[in-house]
Amino acid sequence: MSFQAIIDGLIAGTTIGLGAIGLTLTYSILRFANFTHGDFLAWGAYLTLSVSGFLGGLVASLGVTTPLGPFSFGWGLPVSLIIGITLTILLTMALDKLLFGRLRRRGADAIIIVMASFGASMALRSLLEFIYTANPQYLTRELQIAEPLGLGMRATPDQLLTIGLTAVLVVALNLFVTRTPMGRAMRAVSENPALAGVYGIEVQRVIRVTWIIGAGLACVAGVMSGLLVQIRPYMGFDLLLPLFAAAILGGVGSIPGAVIGGLIIGLAEAFAVQIFGAEWRAGVAFIVLVLVLLVRPTGLFGRPS
Amino acid sequence: MTALSVTDFQAGYDPDLPIVKGVSFDVQVGEAVSVVGPNGAGKSTLVKAIAGQVICLGGRVQLGDDDITGAPSHALARRGLGFVPQTENIFTQLTIRENLQIAAELVPASKRADQIDKMFDMFPDLKERPNALAGALSGGQRQMLAAARALLTDPPVLMLDEPSAGLSPKLVGQVFDTLRRIHETGVTLILVEQNVRAALEITTRALVLVDGALAHDGPTEALRDGKTLGQLFLGQSPERAQA
Ligand SMILES: Nc1ncnc2c1ncn2[C@@H]1O[C@H](COP(=O)(O)OP(=O)(O)OP(=O)(O)O)[C@@H](O)[C@H]1O
Ligand SMILES: [Mg+2]
After folding, report:
1. Average pLDDT over every residue of B35-46
2. Residue A218 near residue A231, CB atoms below 8 Å
3. Ligand 1 atom having least distance to the Cα of B38
4. Are A202 and B74 in contact, with CB atoms under 8 Å apart?
5. What ipTM was predicted for this assembly?
6. Domain containing A172 — which CATH number?
7. How many domains does chain A have?
8. In whole angstroms, what is the distance from residue A220 CA to residue A166 CA?
9. How far is the CA of B87 from the centre of ligand 2 (A)?
């Protein structure tokens, strides 16, 4: 056994954790398990990829792909990411307007909305395959050397960056939710949307902000995964089980919970791969999910309902 | 001047099954009106529908001169219609202060801190541990927080759904003293109450709702005689109606 599994686990865990935040927020505020969330990650990655390709073609002479410092990408990637986040947000808003919002207004049961999200997920995935083909794509072609970190652990600068970026985003988001009026309103709506209206909160606005945060983080998570691994139409679908496991392990509605849940799933996967072999990776999230549901359904930081 | 005007109002949870079946009444500015009636008569449904929490199925509601029929509840809160629901009327996962801060978003930023302090002065129990979760409050303290939340915005019209439910007689007295004080500041009060005797103490007019329709609308004086009330409550003995 080597300590490298810790680094591998943390890196996989950051993607899962960021994705799980959006899932846990939609679950607690819109009150349904959103199966399209994994596809938001994939769409975020592809949209960013397209913008980055466009930018590279448009202003190639400005060195958009010349690596920034120790990293494998040039300034084109952060710029593309910001545009990609915006486009992912627009995608989720459009989906809410066309599908989820309509069902909500009709007073549809949660299970109907969940099934709708399942259908939308398949459609979004197929659309990606149709537009970009099933071949894997890459945000960068630069090779990176993994630097030694001590205790036999190694990580590339890109990998360390994703861990740092995740930490910053999570702290910022947690401050937003605990300290700002909109964060307060989000917590209120997640407890009781009808009462939130009585208090003067415009629930529709809170829902919009929830999509914005969920889609933004999904895009970041997708791009991080695309940067460290590769971009495939099924990347989001393959992450769905780990995302749900992380959100439920952390306790539905809890942002720190989702991230810690994500890191635990990432670490568990990495150790399972090292101990039992790579074919066990996919089973880990499932086992954790079942164990949590049996032993502590409210998760680590969940509130009893 | 009319504070609230309800005309041929119908409301319910299912479009095919109105619970409030054509109710009309006007409330004048500064008036205190109680809504009484047997369990299941539709009292809560009536006030919830006025507050935008239940689907309006017909008729009209006016707040002052504005038509507010079918308006969403957040818009009504902004227009000065305060509402305290019968149950689940505070956010238990938020702190006491946060509950008040949410309501304070409706007043201009410069007045928020003052309004919150004013509520802490009016309800000293809440001031003791403002950063505790509201879920840790006792039943009586929860009702106080619910009332404080609604009062914080200085709403011209305040509707309360059974603010004394589940409280000890001592606390009932306290809640009603507070409501009387609030009414004396000029707030128009609409009070749904099972505790008829207490409600009649502070209101001057009573609406009796039976099976979703108004069975009586008149001065509370007329209802002080338990018999009338019992008769209006169809089938209930006067003793039960007054209990
Ligand atoms: N959320 C709901 N969905 C469907 N029907 C409801 C709902 N709430 C109440 N009802 C029905 O509406 C009718 C009136 O209920 P409502 O709560 O308005 O009565 P009430 O006069 O307030 O009674 P109480 O004195 O017990 O508070 C009842 O038949 C009840 O079953
Ligand atoms: Mg009631």
Report:
1. 92
2. no
3. 25
4. yes
5. 0.90
6. 1.10.3470
7. 1
8. 9
9. 9
